Records
---
Amino acid sequence: MTILRKLAATLLLIPVLALGSFAQDADPAYPEPLGETVSDFAQALNATEEGRISRMLAEIQDATGVQIVVVTAAGIEGLNGGGMRLEAFGRALFEAWGIGDAKKNDGILILIDVTSREARITLGAGYDRVYDDRAARVLATTVLPDLRAGRLAQGIEAGVLSVRDRLVAPFLTGEPIGPLDGFEQEGAWGIPPEVGVAAVFGLFGLFVWRRMRARRTCPNCGARGLQRTREVISAPTKFQQGLGLQHLTCSSCGFNDRTSYPIRYSGPDTRRSRDDHAGDSSASGRDNGGSGGGK
């Protein structure tokens, strides 16, 4: 009788243990924050830099009530982010830490991977979708250029100020805003309007530069044949140009360089006109399909 009772108790424990194991697998244990404002897991900031950034974030929270958290990582694999994209890991960490006011959903996470030299901004659910495009432009104009140049602290400080002015400030006013409002405006080809006639020469120089860039040797190891890929950060619309990142990678030494560029909108009328022109000038026809490139 005693043996039967022990066997019954063991059988009852099996589902409980299985559920506990499943819960652990479904909810990975992310690291606890190292501080209220800055978690330098990459140990890439010295004490002076970290203190300065922490004070900036604390002052912004005192003035606006919005919590901004900065996280650095030397690869997200060591933070239980193995197999995840940087965006997904940022969202998971944001939710695990409960960043921002729970009622307003106004928290902001600036996540920087110093190993891959990538960065993402995660916003609370209280922000409209237009703020995703604005956050991508904040990174492209402040954090990423300095990160690529080895000026991490400077890039973070510039990014924090831009987040305050271009994300937090308009969010608090509640007024409608576009993806480019408040940013330095560029022409359709990425050339400031004041350049004037020099834009023609700039376009010619851009063409020559792109031809030379394709054959350029790696500045790090001298090997030829850099591989170029492009990533769309924000897609263009009929009224606003988009933003992309160009990646130059050396397969010999692992060198990686990133450059932002504007993306022009190409509407159906423009594509139809281009297709009609191609059909008139070519002896062979083509169907309406086209080939697409991945990000």
---
Amino acid sequence: MRTWLVLTAMFALLACARPEPVTQIDLLAFSSTVSFSIYAPPDGFHDNVVPALEQRMQELEVQWRSFGDGALATLNHTLESGGCATTDSDTLELVLAATKYARQSNGLFDPTLGLAVDAWGFRDYDQIESVVAPKVKGKLTIEGTRICSDAPLRIDLGGIAKGAIVLELAQLLETFNVHNAIINVGGDLLVLGTRGDKPWRVAIQHPRKPGVIARIDAADGDAIFSSGDYHRRAIQDGKVTHHILDPRTQAPSTGAIATTVIHANPLLADAAATALLVAGVDEYEAIAAKLNITRAVLIDQELGVHSLPHTDIELPTTLTPAR
């Protein structure tokens, strides 16, 4: 049975000479920490809301993980044989969104690289051997409720699932009259409402050392998603590599080292952060335009900082490397 960790802390943030109560809840799910910062939570929050959040996260974890007997794993069993299958409406909707963003990003976000990700071994290992990843030739097609592949492939929703998760959890919070909160899934977050009479303030982390490069006064509905080569790193042939694959080569991307995207649609923000990372400095503006992204930050391989014109965040032009 899964052990769920609930850490509760109450702290006061001063504004206009009166305390602003914020409750912080940290839960373990999706192989990560899911944090909730709740402004003025309603009565019965811990007895009613927290168990409901835990239950929904358990359901989503089973539904969208790539192994086991959940909806995505069951679908992939068929697609790996080059066949057709149906799935539940939530998973179908997520796969449809993923394939839409794949088209709009010129394939730089690709949800069909599951076999290549597994071949590289990033799911389970800190040390990986030299790998020749399988060139995925299967084509995914969707007709009504049927999802088909014409050759073996595996859907990997890791580049979009966090967006769907924060949206699901936000909708659940709304049913309990929680309207002012931050939902943070492993560093990717959705902002709801305000922190009293002030906006929620969030930070963009430095990709190479502890600390932040910028702080954002986030608006209600802002989804702030990041992608970078600092997550799920591994050693290959004595060199550090990372898990985000360039669909064109099916090898770890080299376009940039970190991106952050701000958008009202969490699913799009999640997928776009990956696509822009793969695109790199030369292509990220064009890909952002195709995805209708107007606010984004990109850190290049030399720690140069780039942003889209409407990003409206105070940023340094270059970052200091780690010592």
---
Amino acid sequence: MGVWMRALLSGLLVLASLVLGTAAFSAAWLERNVVAAEGFAALGEPLGRDPGFQAELREALAQQAADSANVPGPLAGLVAPAVERVLQGLQEAPGYGEAWTESLEASHQRTFSADDAGPAPAVLDLSPLARLATERIGEDLGVPLPAPGDVVADVGPATDWPARIASLAGTWPALAVGAGLGALLALAVARRRGAALAWLGAGVVVVGAVLWFAAGAVPSLAADQAGASPVASAFAAGLAEQAAASLHGWLIPALLGGGILLVLGLLGMALAPRRR
């Protein structure tokens, strides 16, 4: 095989490895943080303490409580103050953390199990929090209140993206193997392996930087797709910020690894004997 042919083939293999590696990285992140229910719950857990989201959540639960409360006439005037008292302290109430986690898991279940019925919107299921709030309001009033029905807010328009994401996420092991084989073959056929390694590392750094800035744009994209209700919009915006932070956390090791490969490749080029 000629020198230029080896260089061209090595370059193409480096490019293929970078493309497959980028796809594998994205699919693995989706598998861990979106498709997996526990990962989704962990991603959304900080919103349970976010002041902006909490304000919208209180408004949504207050409206639900006012609509569902059915108390005797003499107690009707006490409902609004009780609702305000309970919801102001709901975040510190026993069982709040478990109810919020259950809400996230229920939201994930509703969103990712709807593919059999065709396109459906992503939803925020607030039913566990509504039940907790209703129980606390009943305790405050001294009167048992009826359990609320489903309290669900659409986070986005109807779409089949959950099924597509689940399908893509499951391919990450094969994509990662392909990326690794591509990198090894690129080094095997390269005439100057140090240069091939340097190009591979530089490619990882460039791709990582592009993904870093792309992740930073996720919150603004989520704002454009937010649901009609304020609580759904606040949830979408907050979850997008958490997703961007998670992606940045995943990208740091990749950027460091790419930098190490680049340095090793440059060292290999400097120390390798020159070929005539």
